[in-house]
Amino acid sequence: MFAALHVLVDVGRGLREGIFMFWETLWALVLGFTLSGAVQAFISKDQMYVFVGTPTSVKKSKYSAPLIR
After folding, report:
1. What percentage of the chain reaches a pLDDT higher than 90?
2. For each successive 10 residues of the chain (69 residues), what is the average pLDDT?
3. What is the C-alpha separation between 52 and 43, in angstroms, rounded?
């Protein structure tokens, strides 16, 4: 009797922990996709090129990591 109760308690705790982990992941994904959509909707490509640079300017980036010698 008590063994079955312990199993049910452990299953309940596992489900609760799974729901908490799902929530911790879900809100971050929703926030990230919302911000990305807002940037794509309200900022033009020309403005992004001025701020970030063109896709070919990655090699010319002044923020690249220094070489380790």
Report:
1. 51
2. 88 97 94 93 86 68 55
3. 12
Dist CA 45 CA 54 (whole Å): 10
DSSP 5-69: HHHHHHHHHHHHHHHHHHHHHHHHHHHHHHHHHHHHHHS-HHHHHHHT--GGGGTT-TTSPPPP-
How many other CB atoms are there within 10 angstroms of residue 48's CB atom? 13
Buried b / exposed e over 23-42, threshold 16 CB at 10 Å, is eeeeeeeeeeeeeeeeeeee
Identity at 20, one-letter amino acid code: F
